[in-house]
Amino acid sequence: MGSKVITHPLFQSSDAVPVGWHSELGAALAPHVLSGWSAFSVDAVRAAGLDLLKQGAIRLKEVEATAGLGQFVVTSPRKLEEAIAQLDTEAVARHGVVIEENLDNVITYSVGMTCLFGDLISYWGTQRLATNNDGATVYGGSTLHVVRGGFERLAGLDLADDLKQGIKKAIAYDAIVSKFYPDLMASRRNYDVAAGINSSGEIRIGVLEQSWRAGGASGAEIAAFKAFARDPELSAVTCATMEIYGEIDAAPIGSIVYYSGIDAVAGPMTKYAMELE
Predict the structure, then answer these.
(1) What confidence score (pLDDT) does residue 73 get?
(2) 89, 38 in Cβ contact below 8 A?
(3) Partners of residue 123 on adjacent β-strands
(4) Which of 80, 134, 172, 176 has the most CB atoms within 10 Å of its CB?
(5) Could you tell me if 166 and 195 are in contact, meaning their C-beta atoms sit under 8 angstroms apart?
(6) Sheet holding 36-39, edge to edge
(7) What confidence score (pLDDT) does residue 66 get?
(8) How far is CA 61 from CA 105, 189, 229, 242, in A?
(9) d(CA 109, CA 106)
(10) How does residue 16 score in pLDDT terms, banded at 50, 70 and 90?
(11) Cβ contacts of residue 225 below 8 Å, gap of 6+?
């Protein structure tokens, strides 16, 4: 439930799936996500990849990877085999793999709602990319436009059409998953929504995945709660998180630093949040 693999249906119904898997969920989510499949075996990844390649370039996503890592853009059957060769067979069987249409010129929106100590906020935002210490392009932070209240408050904002469509799809995704799993309790509900152009030149907007955990945007959420607590008359605020690779102590004065040092995996970096407005 806590990974992107629930976003799409199985390509092969014969795949062994986790206990509690709802086969109907992927079909219910289809109008609100990109075209794609989930798979729990290498054979199913291959079959699903070949099927989706008929429509254009695809993207393979390792379910346990974060920050934009563990993803492979595939444009041909040969490239598909090269990507499959890099997958861990046991990890595929345990966690699954997502096979999804690839988009270019992508804007990734964050749409979320968080409850803390009885207070509720919702927001839309955009993500930025960074180059990590290995030279790979990864998640580099978020800017969030935050309002008091839940998704109904967010849906009522006067925003650009593509953004309003993305927010609507995220809200629908949240409602559908909650219907299939009524016992789900998540005080943080964050959704990544992609807007871009597919191989056919069509503009596509869809939810990529959910994040029901502390994530890259959580620092900005905490900064928003802090701003609202400081000023009871404040109705909206813009906050941001930044992830800077290759530098420590790189946060500006007045920011909320939640990591500065040499990470055992990522290397030297600084993570901070701050109120912008």
Answers:
(1) 93
(2) no
(3) 112, 146
(4) 80
(5) yes
(6) 36-39, 97-101, 58-62, 71-74
(7) 57
(8) 18, 21, 39, 24
(9) 10
(10) confident
(11) 114, 116, 119, 121
**What is the CA 166 to chain-centroid distance, rounded?**
13
For residue 183, what are its two tokens?
A: 């016992």
- Average pLDDT of 164-172? 97
Which amino acid is present at 46? R
pLDDT in tens, 82-108: 999 999 999 999 999 999 999 999 999
Confidence class for position 270, pLDDT limits 50, 70, 90: very high
Average pLDDT of the residues of the chain: 92
Give the type of residue at 2. G
pLDDT at 27 exceeding the cut of 90:
yes
Alpha helices in the chain (DSSP H): 25-29, 42-53, 77-84, 89-95, 151-155, 161-180, 218-230
What is the helix (H) or strand (E) element at residue 88, kind and residue range? none
Helix and strand numbers, DSSP H then E, in the chain: 7, 12
The answer to whether 143 and 220 are in contact (CB under 8 A) is yes
Burial 49-80 (b: 16+ CB within 10 A, else e): beebbeebbbbbbbbeeebbebebebeeeebb
Q: Which two tokens stand for residue 12?
A: 């092969």
